[in-house]
Design brief:
The chain is of the alpha+beta class and 656 residues long. The chain contains 20 helices and 22 strands. The chain has four domains: 131 residues, no CATH class; 164 residues, no CATH class; 166 residues, no CATH class; 120 residues, no CATH class. Helix content is 34%, strand content 17%. This is Heterokaryon incompatibility domain-containing protein.
């Protein structure tokens, strides 16, 4: 029969020169008879002995672990080391994905047998030295996960833990086929990509491929990046670690970081630099890698923005951090807030969202309301409405309050306000106040139009990004062209032809007047857009030819020379369409304006300019003078205060 060892009344126990605080019975672990006792006595243990996590005393900051040396097949062993000051210890902090929690992997830690995930087992075995100990901080072991009070407290100091580590060790997982090639490719690309910014460069590299192989495979830069396999770079980017919410704070807070994939290593700075350059300037990574790769690029960018912000003046607000991390994933949706709150040092009201794992959903939603109110009051604008929950909001959440666990509008126009320079309300400050326990937002503004016609849900695929053609891609491209033609036809209405003015309104509306990098689109975009529409019209007649012939054959060698340089401008247009139109609906208003509106919009919804709003908003009358916020919109010719006049009479809107 097993028994319990209880140290509840013991102030401390000496163990190899460091302190153990008094323990609390919060976590039970079964220890098999064969397990050796290394901390509390000698010899083998009886079965079913239950030990407890050593409780942190009031002056102790956290637990580090001393990972014992061993050979690859040896059992994992470590000791706890309680520390009062992180700055006094040279330790490394592990950043990894937990993985599946059902696992038979364990580690012996100060007499306890702690169950760990298979991924953590792999990481510790790879990181373990054979001849000396290694001092680490590992959340699954260093934090008593069953103690919600301790867990909440440790999460609050997570940034401090990672910021004081000698380095952050990023564990992507076991090495897989192609990972070594990906790491060597990243090394080679760093010097090559600097200063290059066009798709034609990729053609010369030999990365632009048709169905039958690489075009211009003997490109001018091949000797500099011999045998780079682009697919391995994309595959590496699909690793789950890149999309995890917690890693943003872990790496952004670090002094330095090293990426491990099995026995392959590379500096985080190099990896991030190359992927960001590829994602910003070149077509394939962002457009061929699929949704997972795209979201990974977003997370890498978010990490680096926050990291550079912390190395200089702190400039990222919690609002922008939450937007930057909207694609990240976590099992506990409260961590969408808790995992990044430590980065937003410039938001003085953030205590309303401090980590508290005892908090139920009601408390979390109440915190969302408090944040929305504080952001409006502090920044004197209505930018949070661009991320509003809308008609799909939780029944406990007003439509004007963002639910940061799942933001519907993934690319709000207000995210890039320093670039877009929209000013629909003419720079007026918000006249806003709250009532009914922050449930109702009172705002003043103007109802300037309403939705008369809605286009269909966009089905958009970037034609320039399709390097390999199959039947499914042909179908997707045909749907893309049909959607483009539909928008063009809606803008004609009964006018018959597209006047130059209407053509200008069309391309500006379909791109929200912005480039793929969220800068105001220059005038030459009109020419780019017209050439792109011509290309899609011509290509739509020849899509089927791609199934049996290469691009070289379809266009001809001379034609290919003419088409390929144009792909850069086509890619520019597609990047803008994909970012701003593909998740919205094309619309024509009651007064004939062209608009890009939220997917949840309906015919009859009001288009309003609210004082303090950078952009117009779609509101739906809800009876009794109340309105539901549907979301932000782009309406051509009212984005810069054109709807305001001296005799304007404002209206009060009650949003709930």
């Amino acid at each position: 029969m097993g028994f319990t060892i209880w140290f509840g009344n013991t102030s401390s126990l000496s163990n190899d020169g460091f302190q153990f605080a008094k323990s609390t019975l919060v976590q039970e672990r079964n220890i098999e008879p064969s397990d050796r006792a290394t901390d509390f006595g000698k010899g083998s243990r009886p079965s079913n002995i239950t030990l407890t996590y050593p409780q942190l005393s009031e002056n102790e900051k956290t637990r580090l672990i001393i990972l014992e040396p061993g050979e690859p097949t040896d059992a994992l062993r470590c000791d706890f080391k309680h520390v009062c000051s992180l700055k006094d210890h040279e330790y490394e902090a592990l950043s990894y994905v937990w993985g599946e929690e059902s696992s038979d992997h364990t580690i012996q830690c100060s007499g306890m047998k702690i169950q760990i995930t298979a991924n953590l087992d792999d990481a510790l075995r790879q990181l373990r030295y054979t001849d000396r100990t290694r001092l680490l901080w590992v959340d699954a072991i260093s934090i008593n996960q069953k103690d919600l009070v301790e867990r909440s407290h440790q999460v609050r100091i997570m940034r401090e833990i990672y910021a004081n580590a000698a380095q952050v060790v990023i564990w992507l997982g076991r090495v897989a086929e192609g990972d070594a090639r990906a790491f060597s490719s990243l090394q080679a690309l760093k010097s090559v990509l600097i200063g290059q910014n066009d798709l034609w460069f990729l053609v010369r590299l030999g990365w632009y491929r048709d169905k039958n192989g690489r075009v211009f495979s003997g490109g001018a830069h091949r000797s500099m990046v011999t045998d780079i396999e682009y697919e391995h770079l994309v595959t590496l980017l699909r690793r789950e670690w890149f999309r995890r919410t917690w890693v943003i704070q872990e790496v952004a807070s670090s002094r330095s970081a090293t990426v491990y994939c099995g026995n392959q290593t590379i500096s985080w700075e190099l990896l991030a630099d190359v992927y960001m350059i590829l994602g910003d300037r070149f077509l394939p990574v962002s457009q061929m890698g699929g949704e997972d790769a795209h979201h990974s690029l977003e997370n890498i960018t978010a990490i680096e923005r926050a990291r550079r912000s912390h190395s200089g003046p702190l400039s990222m607000s919690l609002f922008h951090i939450l937007l930057a991390t909207r694609f990240s994933s976590c099992k506990d949706q409260r961590d969408k807030i808790f995992a990044v709150i430590g980065l937003a040092k410039n938001w003085e009201k953030r205590r309303a969202l401090m980590p508290d794992y005892d908090a139920n959903e009601g408390k979390v939603l109440e915190a969302f309301k408090e944040f929305a109110v504080a952001d409006i009051n502090h920044h004197k604008d209505l930018r949070v409405l661009s991320c509003a929950s809308g008609p799909n909001a939780s029944s406990s959440l007003p439509s004007w309050v963002p639910d940061w666990r799942a933001v519907e509008n993934v690319h709000p126009l207000t995210r890039y306000s320093e670039r877009t320079r929209f000013c629909a309300s003419g720079g007026m400050k918000p006249e806003a106040w709250h009532s009914d326990n922050n449930t109702i937002l009172h705002v003043k503004g103007l109802q300037v139009d309403s939705i008369a016609i809605l286009g269909s849900q966009p089905e958009f695929t970037k034609a320039v990004a399709v390097f390999e053609i199959d039947t499914a891609k042909i179908s997707a491209l045909q749907k893309s062209y049909s959607w483009l033609r539909e928008c063009e036809n809606l803008s004609r209405q009964d006018r018959g032809i597209l006047t130059p003015k209407r053509q200008k309104e069309l391309w500006r509306t379909m791109t929200c007047g912005l480039t793929g990098e969220a800068f105001p689109a220059p005038r030459r975009y009109a020419n780019y857009f017209n050439r792109y529409m011509g290309f899609m019209s011509s290509a739509s007649e020849r899509f089927e030819d791609y199934l049996t012939e290469s691009r070289t054959t379809v266009f001809g060698i001379r034609g290919l020379d003419e088409v390929m340089p144009n792909f850069q401008t086509h890619a520019v247009v597609e990047a803008s369409l994909d970012l701003w139109s593909s998740k919205r609906l094309f619309s024509v208003t009651r007064y004939g304006r062209l608009a890009c509106v939220p997917r949840g919009a309906r015919v009859g919804d009001s288009i309003c300019v609210l004082f303090g709003g950078e952009v117009p908003y779609v509101l739906r009358p809800a009876g009794g003078g109340f309105y539901t916020v549907i979301g932000e919109c782009y309406v051509d010719d009212i984005m810069h205060g054109e709807s305001l006049s001296d005799d304007t009479t404002p209206k009060e809107f009650l949003l709930r």
